[in-house]
C-alpha cells in the first residue's frame, strides 16, 4: 500500500484515528495541524502540573470498533469513572439523573405538582409541529420543566432563542429521554438500562483525553507517518474534480506544497470552501457565510483546597451568571492535579469569536470566574492561587433555522471532488460526539483502502449513543 499517499487536515480525534489506521496499513500519511497540541477540542492542556480538559470528554461508546481502538492505544491507562453531575437551578442543586426525593425536596410539593400538571398539559395539548427545540422539548417534558431545565442553559450555549434552534439538535443530544422516563428512573432506578442518556459510568484516560491523542500521534510517527505541527492549510488547488495539491504555511511564514492521492479534511467546512483555489459558485460561498459556530472559552482555576464536590461536572441553569458549566477535574481523574490537597475548576463560557466575552482581557475573565464561583457558592475565591484562560474557536456547529439547506449546498459542491472526504465534527458541520467523529475517520480510511462508506450517515441512528444495554 506504500504507493498511496494521504494528507489529513487537522489532528483532532477524526484526523488522528484515520491517520493511525492508514499508517498501520503502510499508507504514506501527512497530518497537518495548526496548533502545537494534538487532539482538537479533545486535547488536554497542562499548566504548572495541573491538567485541564477542554469541556470534559467521556470515553463511552456502543461501537466495538471505537472501543477496540481506544484500548489498543491506551490499554491500562484508562480509569473507570462514575458519572456524577448536577443541575444548579434556583439556588439549589438537582441530581441528574433525577432522584425523586432530591427533586421534591428542592422544588417543594407545590412546584413539583405544577411541573407534573405542565407535563400532562403537554400530552393533552402538544405543539402540533416540532420544528424547533422549544417545541420538541416541551412536548416531551412540559413547558414548565422546559423553561426551568432547558431554556436558560441552551440559550447560553447558542445565544439564540430556543424557538430558532432546529429540533434536530435536541433529537441528536437528548433523544429518548422524557419526563415520564426520568420519573421512572427516579422511582424505579435504571437497572434495565432502558432509560436513554443516563449512563452511570464511563472510561477516562488517567491524564485526560489528550493522553489518548498524544499517544496516538506518537504511534503514527513510530510507524512512519508525519505530524506537521504549527502549520495552517492555506490553499487547496483543484483541477477538474480532484484536489491536486495542498499548500501549507508554518508559524514562521514558510510555505510548502504537499501532493497526495487522497485528502481528508476535519477543518471547519466553512473554511474549507474558502481555501479551495477554484471558481466556487456564489451560492456555495453564501451558504458558507450563513453557517456559524459557537466557541468555547474556559476559565481554569487552581485552588489550595481539597475537592469539595462529588460531581464530574455541574450544569448552571441560572441567568444571573454567565458561566454555563463547571468541570471538577480532580473527579474525572485524581491525576489531573499535582497534589491531593489541591483542586481545580474549569468554568465554561459559550461565546462567539470577536464578541465582548471572547475579546475580554484574561485578567478580567479570571476575576469574572472568581466572582461567579463565589456567587454560586461553589468555592471560596480566596483559595484560587493561579488561573488562566483558554479560547477554543468553532467548537459547536449551530443548528439554527435553515442551516440544512446551506449545508446541502456545500455538500453538493464538495462531494463530487473525488479524492476529498470530510470527517469529524467541524469538517462535516455535524454535532458529533467524540466517538462518532472517530468513526468518520476510520470509515474514511476504509474508503481509501477500497470500501464505499457514506460518512454522512454516521450519527443518524435513532438509538441514542448513551443508552446502556443489559
Automatic annotation (TrEMBL):
Keyword Kinase part of the UniProt annotation: no
Signal peptide (residue range): none
GO MF: flavin adenine dinucleotide binding; oxidoreductase activity; UDP-galactopyranose mutase activity
Residue ranges of domain Amine oxidase in the record: 14-449
Entry keyword set: Oxidoreductase
Cited Pfam families: Amino_oxidase (PF01593)
EC number: 1.3.5.5
Superkingdom as given in the UniProt entry: Bacteria
GO CC entries: cytosol
Nuclease keyword on record: no
Protein name: 15-cis-phytoene desaturase
Organism of origin: Anaerohalosphaera lusitana
Gene: pds
Amino acid at each position: 500500500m506504500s504507493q498511496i499517499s494521504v494528507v489529513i487536515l487537522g489532528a483532532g480525534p477524526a484526523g488522528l484515528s484515520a491517520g493511525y489506521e492508514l499508517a498501520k496499513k503502510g499508507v504514506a500519511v501527512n497530518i497537518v495541524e495548526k496548533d502545537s497540541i494534538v487532539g482538537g477540542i479533545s486535547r488536554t492542556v497542562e499548566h504548572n502540573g495541573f491538567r485541564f480538559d477542554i469541556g470534559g470528554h467521556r470515553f463511552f461508546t456502543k461501537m466495538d470498533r471505537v472501543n477496540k481502538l481506544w484500548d489498543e492505544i491506551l490499554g491500562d491507562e484508562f480509569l473507570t469513572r462514575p458519572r456524577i453531575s448536577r443541575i444548579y437551578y434556583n439556588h439549589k442543586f438537582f441530581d441528574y439523573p433525577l432522584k425523586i426525593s432530591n427533586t421534591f425536596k428542592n422544588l417543594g410539593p407545590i412546584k413539583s405538582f405544577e411541573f407534573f400538571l405542565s407535563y400532562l398539559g403537554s400530552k393533552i395539548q402538544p405543539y402540533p409541529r416540532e420544528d424547533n427545540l422549544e417545541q420538541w422539548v416541551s412536548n416531551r417534558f412540559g413547558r414548565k420543566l422546559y423553561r426551568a431545565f432547558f431554556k436558560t442553559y441552551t440559550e447560553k450555549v447558542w445565544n439564540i432563542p430556543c424557538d430558532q434552534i432546529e429540533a434536530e439538535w435536541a433529537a441528536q443530544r437528548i433523544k429518548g429521554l422524557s419526563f415520564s422516563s426520568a420519573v421512572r428512573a427516579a422511582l424505579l432506578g435504571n437497572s434495565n438500562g432502558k432509560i436513554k442518556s443516563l449512563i452511570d459510568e464511563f472510561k477516562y484516560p488517567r491524564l485526560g483525553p489528550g493522553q489518548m491523542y498524544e499517544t496516538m500521534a506518537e504511534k503514527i510517527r513510530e510507524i512512519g507517518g508525519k505530524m506537521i505541527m504549527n502549520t495552517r492549510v492555506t490553499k487547496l488547488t483543484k483541477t477538474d474534480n480532484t484536489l491536486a495539491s495542498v499548500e501549507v504555511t508554518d508559524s514562521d511564514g514558510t510555505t510548502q506544497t504537499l501532493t497526495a492521492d487522497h485528502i481528508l479534511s476535519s477543518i471547519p467546512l466553512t473554511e474549507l470552501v474558502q481555501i479551495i483555489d477554484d471558481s466556487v459558485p456564489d451560492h456555495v460561498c453564501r451558504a458558507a457565510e450563513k453557517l456559524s459556530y459557537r466557541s468555547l472559552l474556559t476559565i481554569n482555576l487552581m485552588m489550595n483546597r481539597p475537592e469539595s464536590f462529588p460531581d464530574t461536572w455541574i450544569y448552571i441553569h441560572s441567568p444571573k451568571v454567565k458561566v454555563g458549566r463547571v468541570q471538577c477535574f480532580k473527579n474525572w481523574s485524581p491525576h489531573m492535579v499535582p497534589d491531593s490537597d489541591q483542586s481545580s475548576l474549569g468554568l465554561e463560557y459559550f461565546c462567539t469569536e470577536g464578541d465582548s466575552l471572547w475579546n475580554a482581557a484574561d485578567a478580567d475573565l479570571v476575576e469574572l470566574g472568581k466572582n461567579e464561583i463565589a456567587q454560586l457558592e461553589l468555592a471560596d475565591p480566596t483559595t484560587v492561587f493561579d488561573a488562566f484562560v483558554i479560547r477554543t474557536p468553532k467548537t459547536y456547529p449551530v443548528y439554527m433555522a435553515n442551516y440544512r439547506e446551506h449545508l446541502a449546498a456545500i455538500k453538493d459542491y464538495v462531494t463530487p471532488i473525488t479524492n476529498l472526504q470530510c470527517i469529524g465534527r467541524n469538517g462535516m458541520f455535524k454535532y458529533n460526539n467524540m466517538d462518532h467523529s472517530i468513526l468518520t475517520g476510520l470509515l474514511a480510511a476504509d474508503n481509501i483502502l477500497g470500501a464505499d462508506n457514506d460518512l454522512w450517515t454516521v450519527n443518524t441512528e435513532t438509538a441514542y449513543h448513551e443508552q446502556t444495554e443489559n
